[in-house]
Write a structure and sequence with these properties.
Length: about 120
């Protein structure tokens, strides 16, 4: 039964009636909830990530750089997770882990050299 007392015809009518109540009835209330639902296109899948190019093309330009930075951060973290899983599968031993150790040590030494040169490492 609708808010006006008229009988409804299933789920679609109940959803439409709720939409009409939320928007306050009248001309705006004539919008059907079906128009608010996702498309029936075969390539439309709410479970899939939206490609970054599509996101950047559809947002305010003020947020483009932040969005790109956040996406890059997410991709780095995903790559880190995959690396961790790979190293764990090898029980953190073997040639892949030795290469990881070498890369990590080289990065750490480069950072420490920069800090020593600038005096940053000695700043209280």
């Amino acid at each position: 039964m609708t808010a006006t007392g008229a009988p409804t015809r299933g789920r679609q009518s109940e959803t439409t009636e709720r939409a009409m109540v939320v928007v306050g009835g009248g001309a705006a209330g004539e919008a059907r909830a079906a128009a608010l639902q996702p498309s029936d296109r075969a390539d439309f899948n709410l479970g899939q990530p939206v490609p970054l190019t599509e996101v950047l093309g559809n947002i305010n330009k003020l947020f483009t750089e932040d969005t790109r930075r956040l996406q890059e951060n997410l991709q780095r973290r995903e790559a880190d997770r995959l690396l961790l899983e790979d190293l764990a599968a090898g029980n953190f031993t073997g040639p892949r882990y030795r290469r990881f150790e070498d890369e990590l040590a080289a990065y750490g030494m480069a950072v420490l050299r920069g800090w020593m040169h600038s005096g940053y490492i000695f700043t209280p």
